[in-house]
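CORE FACILITY INTAKE
Project code: CF-77B
Contact: R.S. (postdoc)
Sample description: multi-component assembly, two entities in total
Requested service: structural model of the whole complex
Turnaround: standard
Below are the sequence entries exactly as provided by the requester. Do not edit them.
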Amino acid sequence: MTNDSQIQPLIQIRDLFKLFGSKPNTVMPLVREGLSKDEILAKTGHTVGLKAINLDIKKGEIFVIMGLSGSGKSTLIRHFNRLIDPTEGQILVEGLDVMKLNTKQLEQFRRSKMAMVFQRFGLMPHRTVLENVGYGLSVQGVDKATRNAKAKQWLETVGLSGYEAQYPSQLSGGQQQRVGLARALCTDAEILLMDEAFSALDPLIRSEMQDQLIELQKQLHKTIIFITHDLDEALRIGDRIAILKDGELVQVGEPVDILLNPADDYVEAFVKDVNRPRALTVETVMKPPAFRLTADTIGEALKQMKRIPANYAYYVTDEGFQGVVCQEALENAVKADEQALMEDFEVEPLTPISQDAPLESIIPATMGADYPLPVIDADGDLQGELSRAHLADVLSDFYSDDADSTDNTDNTDLQKSNLTNKDK
Amino acid sequence: MADFSWLSKFPKMDRSTLLEIRKYLDGAFRDFSREYGDAIESFFDPLLDFLIWFEKLLVQSPWWAVLLCITALVYFASRSWKLSLGVVISFLLIGYFGMWQDTMRTLSIITVCTLLAITLGVPIGILMSRSNRTQALVTPILDVMQTMPAFVYLIPVVMLLGIGKVPGVIAVVIYAIPPVIRLTNLGIRLVDKEVLEAATAYGANRMQRLMGVQLPLASPTIMAGINQTIMMALGMVVIASMIGVKGLGQPVLKSITNQYFTLGLFNGLAIVALAIIFDRTSQAYAKRSQKHIQGGQHD
């Protein structure tokens, strides 16, 4: 991660301003003076779309820009490929100043560098699915055989083989957006702009599409700029999230930062409705593993065990986490043979949980376990532990936060927090 | 006491001034037509040649060959046996009732007028859709073209070009072109913004956007405009016959002046038959070229 951040960002946005109105340039000084959006609207009839946006987007990350409607997020994403021209500011892609391109160069830039997915799909109703997917290539002048072959391949990737000859109107919303996604991927552009791509889909299809996007990203390593108004979605797919309010950036950070350290009241209000057990991973709340046994023999192990305040410990070897051992069992075993090897000792098996799992998925296992559950990383090494009491604490914190921070919390939320408090 | 008669009677320009103005304008136009009439006439010569050639082609070819060609055209445009059969029957009846030649003449002039209206109207509609200023400029002109009685603009046209085919074509085109212009403009303006944006985002240039997105998506509306244009052109046939355009209009005109009811009815019915054939064929063609609209709509 540290290496990544030292590389020059792929896309840089510098001091971007966008005013809507008849004479935006004459109004810019007022904006610079720091007049508010409402004051400028009242005085000049101009709307401030975007104000002093600075962004660095790294190669290969999913960068989510989120905000409510009217926050300027759709305006912002249209600046990346200059579907909208800024009033002032710089847009650099790989060091290239996009604002300096003439019409021809801009067309070339759009063809090769960026592909876009639209909220209402933006498919061409008079072209078949196959022709739609190959549209980017046809604009580039690629011959029909090549683009059809490629389009077919991408259709297969998004799971729509067999639909080539259909027209978009014959597909469901989810299928249409898959076509939109395939069309974007078909040009091999490095940057993917997704403007509320999943917002028009129903929740089940939406989460399916999110999964598919994450899967695809694992193989393709594109740079994805994703617009959404749904924080759950942002947290789920974003490597980093920028929160936009009234055309200004409020906070930019990783999902955990946004959740745990909201920059201001606005972000906090946003964050409070998030299903945190779903959004947070085990890693963010686990505690360091307190007790681990590494001894070779049972005798050694018992000695280690006696030094710790608890009557259980995790047994760890070079191969990672093996199981849990309790003091009583060890004492019994020592009576039989002090020199017996730990390898042969029957440790209690305990299914460890992954540090990347969302909290939600491990609640039943953690609540039902006798011991705090060990948390392992992808290699199987012990990274921490999560106890029933700690998890209950964390969860009840989420809900009591809600109850404290808002006056209009609805009854169900209150009931929930009461319940969890009682459990404690 | 002051004269208050202007309260009860509209204060109008006195007769001599009005006469002066009319004289002046008439004179100016007469001078203009004397000066440039020949030049303008020779400008339209190619059109006249084409009109004569096309009319000869239709009139002088054997009737069965023409009928075969028309039926084939209708079939390939509509892919409908029913419509093709209807065409054969109506043309056989028309021929049997002795209106073959007049019908061919009308068919030729209407075809040329329609083609002319489309080749002029669609580009004008496209330009109109590009800028609001052009739209604001062209719309009132179209209003005038549609509402001004045809006889009024027949006068200057005849003064300039005399009577004959070309002034007839001009009069018909002036009357019939507004729908195709209006509906081209409207159709392009109604194209889904997001689809157009998608084309732009993938780097399509102006021409690619126009040919690949705007015109295809506007084509149902444009086709409706073309359809209207054809219908209005056919409606002008009788008026055009007053300035010497031969065809089905002339017998109708004759039957008005001489009160030949049956003659008028037969020729009128022949015009109606042509109109219905044009209409059904162009609509069936439009529908067929919009494959994506028909068929299983997903809900």
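Facility notes:
- The radius of gyration of chain A is 27 Å.
- The longest strand of chain A covers residues 47-57.
Invoice: internal transfer
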